[in-house]
Amino acid sequence: MVIHFAPVSQTRTPINDPVDFEVSALRELGWALHVLSRPSHHGMFLKWALQTRHRLAPDMLDSIEQMTPFFLGWLQTILQGSQCGMRLPRFIDEWEAYMGLGSDRLETLHKNIQHQWTQHFDLRMARNSEWESAFFLTNSEWWTQWHEKVEWLRDQLGWLIKRFWEQEFEDLWHEIVQDLHNDAANRVASRKTENPSSWWQAISPRLRMERDTGSMQILVPWTMEFTVTPTTSVTCSPSVFCWPHLWVNGWQNQLNVTYQSQAVRCWAAPISAPARLERMLEALSEPTRLLIVRHLFGSIGTTGSIAHALRLSASTVSRHLTLLHSVGLVERVAMGHYVLYQANRSAVQSMGEDLQNLKRSPIPAFLQWE
Question: 1, 249, 348, 359 - which has most CB atoms within 10 Å?
């Protein structure tokens, strides 16, 4: 069963509005900390997270565990308000802008994310193990203790971020930033030629353009609506570490979308295989059909003789032979009034070659899945 988190947004799609793509070291680092704090929820990054946690000092791990509830949501919301005005800002510029946020702005952003968790979070999400550990954030009383401590939270997270950047993330950033830049450039180029419905859905499976209604459907945990007007600024941020999430948030006249980069989707996607291989493997997944193919290697027979040899009914053998013939695993040979069956050796050989040719695109070294 597939559970989609209640779609929430029926808004005018900004087809002709300017859409900016930004690559941010600070935002990416925030997502990396989120993955690092909950490694078991992010299978693709499991080895990276475990290796990184192993290298970190105990006090650093303690700080990460203490700040875990704020990595998803609170930190991302705060980072939206910390743009330093540069198209491709350096980490230190972004970090200083973040640390310079005033108490009034912090309080407003804090109330924004609290409202989303406590008022607009789809409680059905609790059925999903990915969100079960964050369910306590839907309790408004939990947030009360932090109302007077937003500057303290900013500082604690800020110094944790800076320390993590210096110890672990700076080198990693140089490894992944080119993929993010390429993704942003490809999205900008494709937006001019692709159908809007294809373009938006290509950003993430949780973003859908409804062609008939001219609306954009955003599948997120929040039951909120974002009204897009000609004056709305839409900023899309490709991310490695946000996989498999899609983070959508609105702030005044700005709509921010953090989506999994195309590179991550390519690395994580199932290996492509010929359609014939899928059909043949599906046919052989049934034990009786596999038994018939095995019997017909080096042998030939009618439906009746096969049924007699395998102690099966003629109708059962006939049904399975029809399917095996349709996918090319069995050949029919007409001989007078009889129809004989034999295994198609070339088809079975091609299936073996297809299996040997399955190859995955190169996986980034930092994932450590060699």
Answer: 249
Paired with 12 in beta bridges are 215
Domain count, the chain: 2
Instruction: List per-block mean pLDDT (blocks of 10 residues) for the chain, which spans 370 residues.
Output: 50 65 92 89 84 93 93 85 68 93 91 88 72 84 90 95 95 91 86 77 80 74 75 85 81 82 79 87 93 92 93 94 94 90 92 85 75
For 144-153, letters b (16+ CB in 10 Å) and e give: eeeeeebeeb
**What phi and psi, each to the nearest 5 degrees, are found at residue 86?**
-105, 145
Reading the block at residue 173, the tokens are: 């950033």
Instruction: Mark whether 231 and 296 lie in a shared domain.
Output: no
Length of the chain measured in residues: 370
> Which candidate, 102, 98, 104, 116, places its Cα nearest to that of 29?
98
Q: Note whether 209 and 330 are same-domain residues.
A: no
Domain boundary among 235, 268, 301: 268
Q: What is the DSSP string of 100-154?
A: T--HHHHHHHHHHHHHIIIIIB-GGGGGSHHHHTTGGGG-HHHHHTTTT-HHHHH
> What is the CA 221 to chain-centroid distance, rounded?
15
Out of 226, 247, 268, pick the residue that ends a domain: 268
For the chain, first and last CA: distance in Å?
A: 32
φ, ψ dihedrals at 88, nearest 5°: -125, 75
Burial of 222 (0-12, 13-18, 19+ CB in 10 A): buried
